[in-house]
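Notebook, p. 212. Picked up where the previous page left off. The plan for this session was modest: take the two constructs that came back from the sequencing core last week, fold each one, and keep the raw output in the notebook itself so nobody has to go hunting through shared drives later. Recording the first one now, exactly as returned: residue sequence, then the structure token string.
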Amino acid sequence: MARGGADAVIAAAIEDTDTAAVPDLDFEFDDDSQYETIEEAIRWMISAQQDPGAFLHEKLVWFWHDHFATSVDKVDFGQAMWEQHLLLRRHALGNFREMCQEITVDRAMLIYLDGDGSTADAPNENYARELMELFTLGRGNYTEDDIRAGARALAGYWLDWDNELSLEFDEESAYQGTINFLGQRGRFRAPEIVDIVCDQEACPEFIAAKLHQYLVGVDPTPERRTELARVFRDSGLEIRPLVAEILTHPSFLETRMSRPRYPVEWLAAARAVIGLPDEPDIWRYEEMGQVPWQPPNVAGWPPGNRWLAADQMLHKLSILQWTDVDPSMVDPEDPVGSILRRCSLWEVSQTTRDAIQKGIDTATETGDDWFAAVALATAVASPEFSLA
């Protein structure tokens, strides 16, 4: 942990060299044990997110998984999903254009958005649409004609299902003519389509605004959005400088308690505070509605206050109900203060303080020796702990 306060921590996060960004491991997704291995890979990803030394890189890995949302439920091929995960890990703080180029011909993405088997005679428009709407430009910055043209240019990729899903490009099934795409005319293939999209003025603005919303919890002002887009564009769509500009701006520290913790984030924090098992239980994430490789749709998990809803609170309390807590975690001389410090809660309402104290008093009056569990459960289920 960096010393010197919040600014030093932020600087250390930005300067992280990501030496362990891509793990030196692989999984054997055999036909007979495919689903068991998929669960093993998901548990590894959860553990990586919860590693106290994960820092900024893991947070960005999760962001891009949510951004380029792909579900194993449809892909149903663990090796392809794992390779996509490694792709996102490599580029999490790297170059957006390069990541977009690779994800466009990624095997899991080709399956998920039906690029596999798309031909010039019958082009599938799903990826062309989502490439512009969700991945790079946002609505209003392309036309239906651009979608149709893009789909033709992206046709020709096949996965050989009889040969371990090897990726092939069939020139004969690809479109041979010229197209008009986002104001340019030519004979384009996937690399040119991605370059044209990334060169659009809307691209750095769209990505900058989405990253700001993810990291800060609120949309940037129009002026701030323009500033961030300029930084991103001038860097050649390098992600780290954009993240640095967001995190080092005064508004980042000034805008506190504005962003609900995603379930994966809340569970990581709760595990650190209470001591959840080292081997992550996927059912905990299923209960709260967020499991890696299982987004609800191509738009990913929705941001916002839905993660503060009453059903989320009930799931949190049910998880805590079955967790053993070491009483030594709480200082009996200053139970409320020690709990808040353990939870890194420095700004809490009097209502939260009173609720923790009431839990302690109730447990003590019954003569039970589980006041620590009650007190910690109250703290981690508090509104303040549910916000980042």
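Okay, moving on. Second construct, recorded in the same format:
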Amino acid sequence: MQIKRDSQFYRFAAYGFLKNLRFFDPFLILFFREMGLSFLQIGTLISVREVATNFLELPTGIIADLYGRRLSMVLSMVSYLSSFMIFYFFPSFYVYMIAMIAFAFGEAFRTGTHKAMILEYLRINKMTDMKVHYYGATRAASQFGSAINALIAAFLVFYSGSYRIVFLASVLPYAANLVNLMLYPKELDGELRSGEKRETIKAFLGIFRNGDALKGVLNSSLYDAFFKIVKEYLQPILKALALGLPIMIAFSAEQRTSVIVGIVYFVIYIATSYASKNAGRLSGKFGNEARALNYTYVFGAVLIIFSGLLQIFALQVLAVVIFFFLFILENFRRPINISYISDNIDHKTMASGLSVESQLKTLLMAIFAPLIGFMADKLGVGSAIAIAGVAMLCLFALVKLNPPKTVKGSEREGA
């Protein structure tokens, strides 16, 4: 299906591309270790980030619906920039807590809000039948940004010999994104203003009374929570591979790791960019979005189980290959998730509704991440990942989506 590629489409795409130029992403755990932090301290910082994000998601989503999504996105970029500067200039565990809270503000103001702006644009321009294709295309730009991010980050670490530089470098693309967001048209703020709080809250609470909407949120949140936890184990796996390969022995551990991490993440994100762009085709092949989400949920859980088993038997290269397919599957699913949820949420409260999905995801991550970490300490990484996959599969019964009625299904199939 051909989508309209006007100036606003390219602004949406530029946002995703620049937003994913987080040069610290492939090296975050390694950066903290370089700064002398223990794994307990690192876990504490991540918990601070997740709890703060969870606490802030809902109020910032409602603020976006009531007072303007553009302002929310601008505040998000300012919060991110503050976080990056603190990480670079103040290497202290306790100050890093402040940086994590600033980062959480950025996440809370952003998640759900920008998706709501895209959906608002499609509604205004009568293109809601293209949700999966349009969002998939903009997400493809963000995944391409992640691919470029991996190469630039690897270059920065290789030539500086330190992970710290990645935070300072991340300031440039986020400053550019701040300017980009300021150019968004006013109409994307949505229809509501501060005088309509009662109507907003009423529509928001309606999400929890709508079985299809609630299950869509749960399906998306549970899958993404497990994926985001498990994917972090790829970073130390790649470092172990880099140090175990008989190449570049003359270089430091950081330099050798940067090369392997850069190459692997570049390949992964080039593939996920293609996956996002073709999410609409995948949905069509399954007949409807609910069926597509159900099948990919189960398949993802099975992949996680296999990645854990491969770790147990020390088949790390094959485990990396499984992670490759997990990343691709996530980016097939995400545009379909957003489309499914948006079909069941009032467009007036789209930002707050999608913030519920993101908030639940962070809550689940806060619960499952330490449990999986504890099992990794006691049983080994491979066993922990395999058990996580089994748990995810067992929980499928709670989040299985009901297939749409014939008429509604036909409409979606034509989308």
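Notes on construct two before I forget. The first helix runs from residue 7 to 19.
Flagging for discussion at group meeting.
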